[in-house]
């Protein structure tokens, strides 16, 4: 389809979905009525973007508390199906508050979503009859929904809970002989070092592809290169079912391959004012999600808190002509230092350029609640294991200059010995909160 045909198709799906949620959800019906609009008034994406934000994390928590109190289920007042039709529910991590049952699906939803996981596995060359090491936190977590798609491809997941520890993960990988793996970039990096401690090499696992989610790591050139060279295979960064990165030496962002699932990334708002932003090459804004085909717990005009950069030009790595995005940070992670907006991801990218003089591990020290920081911002960094400590003042000056140029930031650097900043096997925290 051309861009115009895709947009026409999305608008057709949007009109149907808005009527569906209006009929079936008390919350969405209330949101429409409060805005003074009705589903039949919305015929275009531009019309739709004039509506106020319907949901965010705080509204979702209130919604699920109300449904628990009134109906005895935790899925929220925006549930559009019967609770009896739900076959999977997965929560957010809860790191910023009470977990939410955001990823709640009917059987039809699961079957619809499975197509995107199969597409990604096919692109990575992983086919029926093969095995895949799946190492995330298992159970009531969003990532567990991916297992349905893996199995629907005819691929056998070797699902080892990340909380079992790196030694167990490597042991089961060695025993099962998977050809692919799914994990966070942090875990992929950690296993490189853990395998070396155990007298082996991750390259011996024989992986043909690694699919990572949940962190910015793969978007940092040195991290991508280190993982790919260590394992001897391509690493693909993905964002749920919405898209994945291409088979290229350089990172060109998440390629948006699911226009029939979501309006992503066409709906962006200013992270501070919450006003709509026009889509053009390089625009940065907060992602608003609207799911066009899901029937259980679809999100409609949901402000995600994810700040992304959208690219509309053709991918120079693979020729993909659709839209691509790069993750910038979380709106609630944004810091304001001397009036400048600073995202942790920008700091991490700059610091990673100094590997191996530094390990790449860092913590941003917060002595007061964000976003405003009383300068100077403090950053803990690990120096490299072979770096001459007597030259740290020289390295510190170089890093400060780079941060000043690229992130508009001149921090105080606190040096730490290699290995003292603990790496998480799930999502490695970037903040040290002392308040």
Structure overview:
GO terms for molecular function: ligase activity. By secondary structure, the chain is of the alpha/beta class. The chain has three domains: 3-101 and 260-306, ANL, N-terminal domain (Rossmann fold, 3-Layer(aba) Sandwich); 110-241, ANL, N-terminal domain (Rossmann fold); 335-433, ANL, C-terminal domain (GMP Synthetase, Chain A, domain 3, 2-Layer Sandwich). It contains eleven helices and 21 strands. It has helices at residues 3-24, 26-35, 45-48, 57-71, 107-123, 146-152, 166-176, 185-197, 221-231, 344-352, 392-407; strands at 86-90, 103-106, 131-134, 156-159, 180-183, 209-212, 234-237, 243-244, 254-256, 268-269, 276-277, 284-289, 302-311, 324-330, 335-337, 340-342, 358-366, 372-373, 378-383, 412-416, 431-433. Helix 1 packs across helix 2, helix 8 crosses helix 9 and helix 10 packs across helix 11 (392-407). The protein is globular, with a radius of gyration of 22 Å.
Give me the secondary-structure topology.
Elements: H1 3-24, H2 26-35, H3 45-48, H4 57-71, E1 86-90, E2 103-106, H5 107-123, E3 131-134, H6 146-152, E4 156-159, H7 166-176, E5 180-183, H8 185-197, E6 209-212, H9 221-231, E7 234-237, E8 243-244, E9 254-256, E10 268-269, E11 276-277, E12 284-289, E13 302-311, E14 324-330, E15 335-337, E16 340-342, H10 344-352, E17 358-366, E18 372-373, E19 378-383, H11 392-407, E20 412-416, E21 431-433
Parallel strand pairs: 3-4, 3-5, 5-6, 6-7, 15-18, 17-21, 19-20
Antiparallel strand pairs: 1-2, 8-9, 9-14, 10-11, 10-12, 12-13, 13-14, 15-16, 17-19
Pfam families: AMP-binding_C_2
Protein name: Phenylacetate--CoA ligase
Domain AMP-dependent ligase C-terminal: 339-428
């Amino acid at each position: 389809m051309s861009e115009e045909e895709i947009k026409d198709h999305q608008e057709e799906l949007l009109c149907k979905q808005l009527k569906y949620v209006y009929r079936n959800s008390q919350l969405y019906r209330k949101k429409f009525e409060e805005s003074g609009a009705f589903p039949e008034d919305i015929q275009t994406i531009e019309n739709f973007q004039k509506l106020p934000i319907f949901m965010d994390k705080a509204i979702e928590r209130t919604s699920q508390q109300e449904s628990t109190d009134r109906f005895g289920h935790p899925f929220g007042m925006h549930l559009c199906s019967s609770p009896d039709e739900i076959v999977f529910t997965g929560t957010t991590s809860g790191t910023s508050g009470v977990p939410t049952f955001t990823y709640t699906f009917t059987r039809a939803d699961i079957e619809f979503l499975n197509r995107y996981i199969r597409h990604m596995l096919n692109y990575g060359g992983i086919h029926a009859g093969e095995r895949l090491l799946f190492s995330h936190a298992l159970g009531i977590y969003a990532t567990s929904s991916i297992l349905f798609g893996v199995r629907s491809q005819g691929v056998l997941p070797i699902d080892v809970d990340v909380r079992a520890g790196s030694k167990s993960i490597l042991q089961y990988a060695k025993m099962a002989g998977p050809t692919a793996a799914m994990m966070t970039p942090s875990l992929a990096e950690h296993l490189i070092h853990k395998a070396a401690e155990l007298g082996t090499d991750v390259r011996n696992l024989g992986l043909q592809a690694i699919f990572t989610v949940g962190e910015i790591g793969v978007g940092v050139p040195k991290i991508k290169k280190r993982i790919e060279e260590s394992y001897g295979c391509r690493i693909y960064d993905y964002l749920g079912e919405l898209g994945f990165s291409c088979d290229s030496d350089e990172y060109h962002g998440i390629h948006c391959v699911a226009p029939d699932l979501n309006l992503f990334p066409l709906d962006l708002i200013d992270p501070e004012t919450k006003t709509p932003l026009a889509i053009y090459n390089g625009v940065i804004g907060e992602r608003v999600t609207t799911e066009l085909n899901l029937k259980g717990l679809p999100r409609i005009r949901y402000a995600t808190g994810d700040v992304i950069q959208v690219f509309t030009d053709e991918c120079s790595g693979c020729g993909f002509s659709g839209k691509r995005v790069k993750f910038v940070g979380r709106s609630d992670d944004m810091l304001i230092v001397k009036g400048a907006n600073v995202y942790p991801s920008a700091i991490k990218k700059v610091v990673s350029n100094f590997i191996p003089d530094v390990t790449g591990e860092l913590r941003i020290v917060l002595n007061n609640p964000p976003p405003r920081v009383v300068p100077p911002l403090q950053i803990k960094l690990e120096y490299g294991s072979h770096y001459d400590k007597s030259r740290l003042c020289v390295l510190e000056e170089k890093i400060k200059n780079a941060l000043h140029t690229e992130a508009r930031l001149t921090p105080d650097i606190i040096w730490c010995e290699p290995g003292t900043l603990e790496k998480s096997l799930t999502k490695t925290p970037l903040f040290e909160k002392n308040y």
